[in-house]
Amino acid sequence: MLFRSKANLNPDDTGVDLITKAFHNRNGKLKIPSCETSSEEEGFFHILRGIVMFHRNAKGHREGSIDKKRALQIVQYIDYLIDMIESATIR
Question: Which helix (H) or strand (E) element contains residue 70?
């Protein structure tokens, strides 16, 4: 994962644990430079946590389909989050 190596995290860290170790607003290893306050950092952390818990887990563990329009909306938002993650610096 993109930020796993940036934060020097263990390959065994996955899912919400990985997100927490990397981006938790109090003790995560990475910081998003555009976040100026702890509450903004906390918000970004919860967005990533929610993506994993809602989109990744639900779509990855259960069968089902998603329509093209919805898939494109999700992918576009995740592309934005990837840009933010790429800007992350070590705390």
Answer: helix 68-86
d(CA 67, CA 65): 7
First-to-last C-alpha distance (Å) of the chain = 19
Q: Tens digits of per-residue pLDDT, 30-49?
A: 999 999 999 999 999 999 99
Whether the Cβ atoms of residue 41 and residue 25 lie closer than 8 Å to each other: yes
Cα(57)–Cα(52) distance, rounded to whole angstroms? 6
Task: Please state the pTM of the whole predicted model.
Answer: 0.87
Amino acid letter, residue 17: D
Sign, Cα dihedral of 50, 57, 85, 45: positive
Query: CA-CA distance, 79 to 62, in Å (whole number)?
Result: 23
